[in-house]
Design a protein that fits this description.
Radius of gyration: 16 Å
Order of helices and strands: HHHHHH
CATH topology: Glycerol uptake facilitator protein
CATH superfamily: Glycerol uptake facilitator protein
Largest sheet: none
Structural class: mainly alpha
Length: 140
């Protein structure tokens, strides 16, 4: 991707997150939507959970990013199994980290629901963790 496209790409990701959350709200009965806090991440309830949540998001995002980089980008390790491997990695991450942080892996995924239900408590974790994980994967 050309550097000039990074800004528009990020804006489009955030708009997509809000639109996706809006569609989910339209398709979900109001009571169920409210019971699920509008899909906004509310797993972290106190400061004592911050280290585990940030560490979990960094590690889980790093794993997914490494699978993509090694399986789809690196010409020496490219494989047609990448769609399966990425999906399997995400499933494993959700099962392993769901109770710790909610397993966001993408700030835009956290942004959309947070905007719709105005839930910003510990929202920054879902930016710091995934961005940190992507940076670690890029360095490795």
């Amino acid at each position: 991707m050309e550097l000039i496209m990074v800004g528009p790409y990020l804006v489009c990701q955030l708009i997509g997150g809000v639109l996706g959350a809006g569609m989910a709200k339209l398709m979900t009965p109001e009571q169920r939507y409210q019971n699920a806090t509008g899909a906004a991440f509310d797993t972290i309830q106190s400061h004592s959970q911050l280290f585990e949540a940030i560490f979990g998001e960094v590690v889980m995002t790093c794993l997914v990013t490494m699978v993509v980089l090694l399986g789809a980008v690196n010409s020496k390790t490219k494989t047609p199994l990448v769609p399966f491997l990425v999906g399997a990695t995400i499933v494993i991450n959700i099962l392993a980290g769901g109770d710790i942080s909610g397993t966001c892996l993408n700030p835009a995924r956290a942004f959309g629901p947070a905007v719709l239900v105005n839930h910003w408590t510990y929202h920054w974790v879902y930016w710091v963790g995934p961005i940190g994980g992507a940076l670690v994967a890029a360095v490795l």
